[in-house]
Structures are given as C-alpha cells and as structure tokens.
Design brief:
The chain is mainly alpha-helical. It contains 4 helices and no strands. Helix 1 crosses helix 2 and helix 2 runs parallel beside helix 4. The longest helix has 24 residues.
Length: 118
C-alpha cells in the first residue's frame, strides 16, 4: 500500500512539474497554476537563501511585493505570450497573465515570509 501511495505522489508531482510548460491545450489549467505557484515558491526559497535580506524596503507598507509583483509579472508574461503565439502559434501556461502572476506570487510570498524582520 505504501508503494502505491508513493507512486501516486510521484506521478502527481511529475504532472504538476510538467503542466506549466506544456501547451495550453494539453494540460489542465488548475494543475498548471498549482505547478507554477509551487515552482515560484521554490525559486523564492532559493533566492531567499542566497539573499536573506529584502531587496527593497517599503517602510509603511510591508508586503507590497505580494500585490505589485504578480500584477507586473503577469502583464509582462501576457505580452510575451501574445508575441510568442504570433510567431509559433502556441504558448504555455507560463506565458499567460495568470501563469506569470501565480509564479510571481509564489516567489514573493516565500521571499516575504523568509526575509521579514521579526
């Protein structure tokens, strides 16, 4: 039973890992979104380990990056996705507004939690 559960988790993890980078017609959007948020969190963890202090300090409004970063990154990724779609005809979930925003939110949340001063 343990082996079956372990294999199911491995399979789900593999799908979660691949979904954000597949064509949008080949992966479930919720699975892709969860994968992008987790990938962003992982990148945020690595960046926080390398740079344990905040890059910018917004004295009166800590956590501003939790709102601004996803919006800005989502807009840039949407623009990039449209450009890539004109050239190749397809784009991945990462190259959408929501994909870029979820990745950035995952990264910003982990950075905020790991670098905030207690």
């Amino acid at each position: 039973m343990f082996q079956l559960i372990f294999e199911l988790f491995l399979d789900a993890g593999g799908r979660l890992e691949r979904a954000p980078f597949q064509r949008r017609d080949r992966a479930h959007p919720v699975l892709a979104g969860a994968g992008l948020a987790l990938l962003g969190a992982a990148v945020g963890f690595v960046v926080s380990m390398a740079f344990p202090r905040p890059f910018f300090r917004f004295g009166v409004m800590p956590g501003t990056s939790l709102v601004l970063s996803p919006i800005l990154n989502g807009a840039v990724m949407e623009y990039y996705g449209r450009w890539i779609e004109k050239r190749t005809g397809t784009r991945t979930y990462l190259a959408t507004f929501w994909g870029g925003a979820l990745f950035a939110f995952g990264m910003a949340l982990v950075r905020f939690l790991m670098t905030r001063e207690r």
